Structure formats: structure tokens, C-alpha cells
Amino acid sequence: MCRKLDGRVLTSEESVQRRWKEYFEELMNEENERKKRVEGVNSVEQKVDKIRKDEVRKALKRMKSGKAVGPDDIPVEVWKCLGEAAVEFLTSLFNRVLESERMPEEWRRSVLVPIFKNKGDVHSCSNYRGIKLMSYTMKLWERVVEARLRKVVEICEQQYGFMPRKSTTDAIFALRILMEKYRDGQRELHCVFVDLEKAYDRVPREELWYCMRKSGVAEKYVRVVQDMYERSRTVVRCAVGQTEEFKVEVGLHQGSALSPFLFAIVMDQLSEEVRQESPWTMMFADDIVICSESREQVEERKRRGMKVSRSKTEYMCVNEREASGTVRLQGEEVKKVQEFKYLGSTVQSNGECGKEVKKRVQAGWNGWRKVSGVLCDRKISARIKGKVYRTVVRPAMLYGLETVSLRKRQESELEVAELKMLRFSLGVTRLDRIRNEYIRGTAHVGRLGDRVREARLRWFGHVQRRESEYIGRRMLDMKLPGRRQRGRPKRRYMDGINEDMKLVGASVEDAEDGDRWREMIRRGDP
């Protein structure tokens, strides 16, 4: 079943298929409104080397096994099993594609599978993300092209998405430390969390070619990528079967190996006017947060560059001295909030992390419920249950906590929730008067507080070993004028780190040796 735009529920197979086709056909052929590019950009004409066997081997090694196949029904395992014969054949094939700038017509077909976003009405098509299943041979070709483009294009350091050695943790950590520094200095920090509606699906193709050329990509590669997107066709595979085939003329391929880096190139060029040579504009793909010391500067940066979604863009002021208004976007006020879920981690304007702890507990229970059929099965051993818990539930509770300094009460809140889950899993209650240590030992699960401490120290060691230009180190070392407020001081990130290092008998200097540091902070499960 699914809903039409007017809210009516469709039940017949034919009407459901037609609705899915209408939704994705409109989504993938409607461009975002953008200013036409009037300025020209010089193309880079240079000789392109032939594809080498070692490039194909690396691309093949990077492909994950056990994934869904594309329209040709050829899994990547076929190429891996053929070994060197596959490498020779693929190298020859890719060189022919590179020389002719034309790929096989079968590679242009894909199957679109709607994946529910786990929020909103399950019958609404807009609450589903379309993932394309494409030919694995084409994905290998994309991997080879991507590796070459990464050597040519330099993406700004403020981009954390789809970049090597960067993750959501880097962006979350940078934002939290920045907010902490301004809070300690009793200075205002204005943050706007920008949302670009359907940015990935609606990137105009002409905009993509423009951004590639402006980034210095050789014209040969531009034409190769253009060919990947020409005459693209797809079908939607829904619960009642496959729809009719339709063209895809706008946006990047969801599920493609090359698309994430192409999107990073587009965002890098489009945000050039918004960014400054400071760590206060951070991007993770199309999730952008713009920070500045004054509201006027934030509005000025936001006026330039990309068109944003007014309904989903939100504003937050850190250490606000007196109640004031919000920023304006396209003549309308942006919603002002006291907390925001940034890359899955809740940040609060007062710098506290109490809301985030509650979210982690909730995420843990959500994960526990998903595998409760296994965890509550009396036929399954406690050791297996503990392994399932450590694999599925605990990572959800630990996400992002390496970037915060918890109080004892908050740490206890996490451990209480964990013990409830373990007791449910083992079929015991508090009335059975079984000690917590016995519960943990039976399930082979250590204290969650120890795991949080280990994760925090592991992340701190990672930051200390990075180069001095790394944004995490720059944030930690940043000095701002101003004094901390009177009374009991707010807890800082380094307060927690110093306590953690004292407990394990480590010092900041020990973090320089990665192996020794990991050995010192490790707290294994029983």
C-alpha cells in the first residue's frame, strides 16, 4: 500500500506501481532552482594515461562481497573468483571505454529499491530513500575513475563527508569543542544548521560538469562521467513487483561508487562563497553548519551560495546573553531552537549533554527491541546473547559519546539502562537479587562506563596524533579572550580526559605512541 498526494490509500498492485513510478520519475527529473551559470570556465585538455592492472586490482579489492546484484545479475564475487584473468579482461574493457568515451548500454540500466527512512508515515513515498542497484562491472569502472579524480581534485578541509580519514565524529567533535570554547569565554556564537532539500537527487547535470571543470578535472574525465549519466534508465522494485522503465535526467545515482565524490566536488564549489578560512563552517555532504560571532555575519554568509530549505533550516545561539530574535532567510525568520540533532548527535545551546545521553539510551532500547527475539530466547546461550548485545545494541549507545565529558550521574543513567537490557535478556529481575557483576560476567559484557572512557581516550589519542592543521587539534588548542563565569564551572571536555588519564595512569605524551596508548586504555569484556 501507499498514499497518493491527496492522502488516499492505494491498494491495487497496478495503482501502487504507478504511484511509485510517478513519485521517483518526478523526483529524479526535477531540478532545484538555481541561478544560470553565466561565467565560463576553461576546460583542462591533457593526456590521460591508460588504465593499469594495479588500478583494477585495487578497485576490485575495495568492492564488498555479499551485496545485492544489479540488473545483469552478476555479483562482484564472480570477478573476484576469476582472479588475474578477470583483472586482464577488465583492464582491456576499461581502456576501450576510456578511449571511446562510451560505456556498454546495459550499464545504463538500474533497479531502484525504496528504503524506509524509519520516520514519518510508512505509506508515504516521500519517507523512502531510493537506492539504485547497478551493474557491478560499472561500479568497478566507477571505482577506477574515482581513484584518479581523488588524485586531481582537492576538497576543502571543512568537508567531512566521503573523505578519507574523516567521519561524522570529526564534525561532531569540532562543533562541540567550538561551542565549549565560546561558552567558557562567555561569548555568543550563532549557528545556522542549513538543510538542502533533496540535494543529492536534484543536482543539475550542467552544474556537475561546471564544478568538475572548475576543480581542474581533465576534459577527458568530464566526458567519461557525462557518458555515465547519458540515457540512464531505471525501474522501481516495490513490494508488488517492478514498475515500467523511465528515464533519469537529473541528480546523482544513489548507490553509485562514484557519486559520493562527485557530490563532494559540487558542494565544494557551490559553498566556496560561504566558506571562510576558519573552522567555523563545517559540512558533511549536504549537512552544513555555519557559525559566526554575530547574527549579521551568519545572515550574510547564508545569503550567498546555495538555495536552502526554509522549513528544515534551524538557528541556535550559544551563550545567549539576552533574549533576542532569530536570523532571516529569504525574508522569513528561521526557526530558533535550544537543541539540534547534528549528524545523529544532539547538541544543546547551553553546552550540556543530558539530552544526548537520553537519546543514546533510547537508541539502545530501539536496537535491543530489534533483536529481542534472539536476546530473550531461552534456548540461546548467555555467551551468544552477550555477543549479539555487544554487536547490535552497545554501538548505538556509544555513538558520539567519545566527544563529550559525562558526569557520574549521566554515566550511571547509561549503565542502569544497560543492566535492565541484560537482565531482560537473561530472564532475571531485581527480585531475584542477583548482583550486577554476576549478570555482566554471565553475558560477558563489561561496564558501559569503562567502554565510554575507552572510546573517549581512544579518540583523544587519535586527535593528538593528527597533524597540527587538523581541525580537532586546532579546536582544542584555540584560545579565546574572555573569562569563565563565576560559581561552579561547567564541565569541559579536557576535564573528563584528565580524569580518564589519571584512572588508567596515562599522560598526554603517551598518546604519541598509538600502540602503547591503545594498550594502556584497553578495557576488555569479561
Automatic annotation (TrEMBL):
Origin species: Hemibagrus guttatus
Family annotation (PROSITE patterns): RT_POL
E.C. number(s) listed in UniProt: 3.1.26.4
InterPro entries reported in the protein's UniProt record: DNA/RNA_pol_sf, Rev_trsase/Diguanyl_cyclase, RT_dom
Superkingdom of this protein's organism: Eukaryota
Domain Reverse transcriptase: 96-347
A Pfam family it matches: RVT_1
GO molecular function: RNA-DNA hybrid ribonuclease activity
Sequence similarity: Belongs to the beta type-B retroviral polymerase family. HERV class-II K(HML-2) pol subfamily.
Residue ranges of coiled coil: none
Protein name per UniProt: ribonuclease H
